[in-house]
Amino acid sequence: MNNKFIPILSVFMTISLVVFVSLQFYWLKEYYASLEQEFSNKVHVALENSAQKISEIEVSKYNEKFKNFDKTLAANAKKPTLFTVQQTQDSLTKTTLAFGKTIIEKQDIQISPKGDSLTKFRLLKDEGIYSFKKTPTAPQIITSAQSQDISSGIFSLTEFAKFNATNLPINQRVNKKVLDSILSRELKTQGIDSKFGYGILDKNNKLTAINNNTFLDQKDKKNYTYPLFTDNDDKTLFSLSLVFPRKDASLVKNNLPMLLGTFMSLLTILGIYIISINYMMRQKKISEVKTDFINNMSHEFKTPLATISVATDSLNNDKIATNPEKVKYYSKLIKQENLRMKKQVENVLNMSKLERNEMKLFLKETNVRELIKEISKSFRLIVEERNGTLSEEFRAEHYLVKVDEFHLSNALINLLDNANKYSPDTPEIKISTKNEGNWYVIQISDKGMGMEQQNKVKIFEKFFREETGNIHNVKGQGLGLSYVKKIIEMHKGQVIVESEKGKGSTFTLKLPMI
């Protein structure tokens, strides 16, 4: 992918993601609003049914008190004259008087000499209900419709109970336990099993004594109300109110599969977006690093090739060709530069094999102490050319370890080479060993330039090289540490780095001894 298209593609993907996420959140908002509406409808039905059942319970109480009242009226409906009175007195010393009076006057009217006559009935009626309390109040008379029901003998005590109970306090009309039971049953019938609080409000919207603790704690939250009792003019006397402190949790619980599906799809899209952006950024970075790698390789090959070219031209010179010492010197120089290029090519090929898992280790029990001594002896010459020092400290008592001698040697040489290259002044390098449990530990320390903390992990990435201002001021391909890490991991070991900018670095290799 061309690097110049990556920022454009990233912007396009970001805009698409923002639009998609916005639509998802809008859909969730609308979906939640519809769930709330459905919940409100169910609560309304439950409240309506509960209010109706409470009213029916109240009427049934009056049926028990006045069970002979309507039966007497029905049984005597055809009698010429009927007068009934029913009186009761409740706990508040209020007297209720119900009466009914019906007079049927029969008249026979002669309409012809032959004896034909017309029978005429005249109906006289009077009825009413009066309530008397200690406090002077105006008596209430039942309506004409109620009078017709009473006089026709089909009167139900519903209206009478409604009329009579109007003056009763709410705690005598509603039982808290009964109300709680009815509400629980009706809500469950509607599929609502969330915790609820209930309370009865008077016509001034003030809370009465009929409530529970949940309602008191959550009364400031959104509540659902429905008329509970009305007077003869159908004006609301009391309202039944419900609150649901865990409504949101209940809605989520009841619609969990749908919401989980939506959130999972949203997270999937976000994950794909993050992975895609990360992949593109990595590709861009790899492309840049590869470009730097090619530039470095070109520079690394350019120097030995130039040296070889000069040495070859010199050997063709008759004066040098006849001088054995000069011929030997230039031949050695050509061989040295050739080996240098070969080593660089082998590093690249080895990393390629490691990436494809094609490299195999040939493990054998090795005296690692002697191996380190041999490497140190050869590398000390390079350090001493810069007037540096390479010291050793062998503290490991057990040093026979199964390793691949060739690859472990290359890994150690890479670390020593880095310690030397990244020591801008006189190198001070130290190799130490020790036993730590079942590990054979090798530490290579320097007092060089060190590195930034954020680069301690990145240095093991292929092609990575810490910026030092000039890309060629420290030569290399950025493959050495990546190779070291993979070789040690293939030995089932560990690589640990400790470094501080300006104070140097310490690389610790841990190799298993079993």
TrEMBL record:
Q: What class of enzyme is it?
A: transferase
Protein name, as recorded: histidine kinase
| Annotated EC | 2.7.13.3
Q: Does the keyword Phosphoprotein apply?
A: yes
Q: Do you know which InterPro entries this protein is assigned to?
A: HATPase_C_sf (IPR036890), HATPase_dom (IPR003594), His_kinase_dom (IPR005467), HisK_dim/P_dom (IPR003661), HisK_dim/P_sf (IPR036097), Sig_transdc_His_kin-like_C (IPR004358)
Task: Write the record's keywords in alphabetical order, separated by commas.
Answer: Kinase, Membrane, Phosphoprotein, Transferase, Transmembrane, Transmembrane helix
Q: Specify the Histidine kinase domain's residue ranges.
A: 296-514
- Which molecular function terms from Gene Ontology are attached? kinase activity
Q: Which domain of life is it from?
A: Bacteria
Record-linked SUPFAM superfamilies? ATPase domain of HSP90 chaperone/DNA topoisomerase II/histidine kinase, Homodimeric domain of signal transducing histidine kinase
Reaction(s) catalysed by this chain, per the record, are: ATP + protein L-histidine = ADP + protein N-phospho-L-histidine
**Membrane-spanning parts:** 6-28, 256-281
